[in-house]
Amino acid sequence: MQTASSPQKNSRSSNDGAYLNAMLLAAGRGERMRPLTDTTPKPLLTVQGRALLDWHVAALLRDGVNRLVVNTAWLGEQLPAHLDAQWSDLARAGRLAYSHEGQDFGHALETAGGIARAVPQLGAAFWLAAGDVFAPDFVFDPERARAFTASDDLAHVWLVPNPAHNPHGDFALADDAPGSGTGRALHVAKEQPSAYPRYTYSTIALLKAELFTHPWCEMAAGNAQGVALPLAPLLRRAMDAGRVGATLYTGRWTDVGTPERLAQLNA
Q1: Spatial contact of 85 and 92, defined as CB atoms under 8 Å apart
Q2: Which residue from 2, 31, 102, 114 could staple onto 71, CB 3.0 to 4.6 Å apart?
Q3: Helix (H) or strand (E) run with residue 83 in it
Q4: What are residue 157's phi and psi, to 5 degrees?
């Protein structure tokens, strides 16, 4: 059995913007991972002796996150069964919650739809991480969270060097200072030339609930209708308004999207 982080961190308030809640995305079908995901949700596949999702949970707790919300759909009953047992102290303390998209709507709501559904459980600002990404060295930095909460930004995304399966990247990064690796995320179409380097979105971010309201998002509060919507269009709108920060992350990172990548991690 694994335990939650120290009592000192657990007792910290999120009011100062440092110790936020977090959402872990775990609802997807994982089509490219079949047949492994025919019987196991992709976030519960094992990497180096530990479920993918548990790597994130351990890091978030280590870094002082208050409460975790996990969305479920495909084989959704397996996720609380695993997490409530593996992190029983966290569950008993009421610091582990779920958004059951499959149970409520019969299908996953995609990224933005799932986040919007869970926003009432998350607060005004929160961490986001995809449950199928392996980033064992990533730090969910409380000081970065504090600065983001105090800023006018709607999102702060971590970008990574482009992997072989996404050579053209997702977003451009305009550094605040040359070589700083931190600045503004820019929406530049892949077919357009860019004065700034393009990188891949790591699926780790800080977000504000405001991003899931008009004019950035047209879904009703709490996504009560179960609308399925990806996150990228919302981020692009916010980027066009200059309200998305970005940091280049160069630590270990793998999008565990295929059986081959999983096998390489476990080799």
Answers
A1: no
A2: 114
A3: helix 78-86
A4: -110, 150
User: Please, are residues 232 and 187 in contact by the beta-carbon 8 Å criterion?
Assistant: no
Torsions phi, psi for 165 (to 5 deg): -85, 0
CA angle 187, 190, 191 (to 5 degrees): 125
**pTM of the full predicted structure?**
0.90
Instruction: Decide if 44 contacts 52 (C-beta within 8 A).
Output: yes
Closest C-alpha to 233, from 249, 244, 246: 244
CB count within 10 Å of CB 85 equals 11
CA pair distance 267, 200, nearest whole angstrom: 25
**How far from chain centre, in Å, is Cα 229?**
15
> Quick one: pLDDT at residue 194?
78
> How far, in Å, CA of 73 to CA of 41, rounded?
9
Instruction: Burial-class residue 106 by CB neighbours within 10 Å (0-12, 13-18, 19+).
Output: exposed
What is the dihedral sign for C-alpha 235, 238, 240, 243? negative
d(CA 176, CA 183): 5
Tokens 């700034």 belong to residue:
196
State how far the Cα of 17 lies from the Cα of 100, in Å rounded to an integer.
27
The pLDDT tens digits of the residues spanning 7-48 come to 333 445 444 566 899 999 999 988 888 888 899 999 999 999
Q: How confident is the model over 192-206, as pLDDT tens digits?
A: 777 889 999 999 999
Intervals of the chain under pLDDT 50: 1-11, 13-15
Break the chain down into helix, strand, coil percent, rounded to 5: 35, 25, 45
pLDDT of residue 16: 58
